[in-house]
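Handout for the seminar on molecular recognition.
Each group receives one record of this type.
Step one: identify the two inputs.
Step two: read the structure output and locate the region that could contact inosinic acid.
Step three: write two sentences on what you found, then compare them with the reference statements printed after the record.
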Amino acid sequence: MANVAVIGAQWGDEGKGKVVDWLASRADVVVRFQGGHNAGHTLVVGDQTYKLSLLPSGLVRGKLGVIGNGVVVDPDALLSEIARVTAQGLKVTPETLRIAENAVLILPLHPALDKAREEARGAAKIGTTGRGIGPAYEDKVARRAIRVADLAEPETLSHKLDELLLHYNTLLRGLGVAPFEKQALLDGLLKLAPQILPFAEPVWERLDELRRSGKRILFEGAQAVMLDVDHGTYPFVTSSNTVAATASSGAGVGPNAVGFVLGIAKAYSTRVGSGPFPTELSDEIGQLLGDRGHEFGTVTGRRRRCGWFDAALVRQAIKVSGIQGLALTKLDVLDGLKELKICIGYRIDGAFSRHLPAAPGAQAAAVPEYETMEGWSGSSRGARSWADLPARAVKYVRRIEELVEAPVTLVSTSPERDDTIMVRDPFEG
Ligand code: IMP
């Protein structure tokens, strides 16, 4: 199988960066297909640590990076990120980065509305990254968004800004926030245009050519299935579809081009932002997982909520997104725990459910049903083969495979790239 899509199978921050980096070194092109600069991937290469939000990870490995039409692009954030990684020695030019001409732009009014709405929600806030992701996707489906190609047409920009401001300034005034001036926004966009347009093209055509010449494409997902706007814990989700099928519509390739679907899951669970988290631990074990796993958001710096592995939820993520193999990360964080719990379903109003229902009331009422396993006393850190792992750690992984109904094809045992147990190469299908 030539191509691979990598997606998160929980609530994000599963350690996609390390897996994507390894796969990128074996791909010819890396494509982002949804989300925006709400994502955060940390890549450690040699003595350099790269923090990427919008740029496809393959750039770090000298591979062509493509930002697909399904991504919402904040041009200011993109240019700052390019400047930052260029200062670290990376080469980001129109030869190494292509951006879909039909991708939607994030303007300064998007984060302004995102933040104002969150503040107005008070305790009911979603806990967004405040980067304007939701409003930008709303504009796309409302057919009023400004897209990359519009930067070449000042007249189009002017008309679209009129329509956007009619909508945004009404809302912002209502929320007690100062309205935006059209001229300042227009001047800003016209200034950005010559810096962004050289990267723009119909990327679907390039991807088609690459595919026909037998190149390997890696589709790099952001966020994760439980944050998917349809399949996640709605409304506490992001505003894009994060499932593997979006690699097709968000890049402009057919569904048959997506290839092997690799899901990434931590050996426990974490979540940032608000929303249901049935296996969350507010005790000292939750604290320990957070400390050991360095569970702080790359983008927001917020401490992540921690809990036991939720096999019912990961199984659900696997089913709705067609995950064919699971990469299990951070197994070493569980080293030394006396006992481990795996959630196998929920008790809701006295009845057992193997899946998390869609209704918010039922989600909030879901009490996890656990299976308890003995922990291991040895260390799994740095293991590179099954034989390196404590026997009970192997048992834990095998039990997860059974419960989620998918094979674990990779186990990551430390942040180091080579500390990985590779069961099956996703590029080999
Ligand atoms: P938004 O994507 O900024 O609208 O935020 C919506 C929800 O998705 C919030 O709970 C965020 O914390 C969460 N979220 C967005 N991006 C990420 C990510 O890259 N990792 C983990 N959570 C994320």
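Reference statements: The radius of gyration is 22 Å. The chain has a mean pLDDT of 95.
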